[in-house]
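Hi there,

I know you've been waiting on this one. I reran it after we fixed the sequence typo, so this is the corrected version. Both the input and the resulting structure follow.
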Amino acid sequence: MKNHRMAIVGIGATGCVLAAALLDKYPETVLVGHRAEQGEILKKEGVNVSGALTLKGTVNNYRNQIGALSHFNPTLIFLSTKTFHLKEVLEELENIYRPGMKIIPTQNGLGTEDLVADRFGTEAVFRISLNFGVSLKSPGAATAAFFNRPNHMGGFAQKNRKQGVQIAKMLTDCGLETDFVNDIKRYIWKKMIMKCTMASICAITDLTIKEALDFPPTREIANACFQEAMAVSKAVGYDLGEDYLKQTFGYLDKVGSHKDSMCHDIENKKPTEIDFLGGKIVDYARAKGVPTPFYMAMTNLVKTFEEKYRGS
């Protein structure tokens, strides 16, 4: 991977982890944020991750516009912005895209890789499903609550497999254990059913994942949502099997007292990522004719909360 020039777009919690991991071995990696003052802080203090992951990196290159990457000519671009920024990010990337460039969405959510593929083609896309929970404490400083190893990564063009395996090994060598898998969408569904279900419940109730699963009324809602999401997953071609829920609750038990990021979005009166989480489950369900009354209710409640503090 020595010949690759890498950039990370979005230096929130996830971007901070990616940056801290990559910068140690690849110090010329470029970070792209949206404020010049953020760059000054990062260059001065670096990026640091504590908790379930311990990573640290020195920042040499920071840009506050995607267009500024044109002179750098990156070959790998990791996307870690919020999903509601994805459309505008892809529009800006179109101005710097070159054949051979690989774009790698790392966000939570369903269908992000499809948007990239629709614009740049399947050969331009890899997708990573990250299995850690992290929160940003201050610019460049993040705390990881858990890391259920490994992360999973996959591509959508067979000719990219060798390169994908190399990228996964690079991330592993940098401290983010990652396996390359043949069908990344299966792994995305396996994780996103958990995320899509718990994000809305936790956001509306302001409970941690553990609290929501320990409290019988919210546990009942979660159980119903899991069943609906599994039916949708099966309808789109991914039957996760009878053991999935047992595995899911085993995974969530390791998460512990972690607040979903959507809780913080609502608390801080920011846009949420509901359209790529519960909203996507509902969209797929409608397309396949699968009833999802619990998912529809939780999704619409989140949208109502957001509408109330953001306005039309």
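Quick highlight: The chain is about 50% helix and 15% strand.

Best,
R. S.
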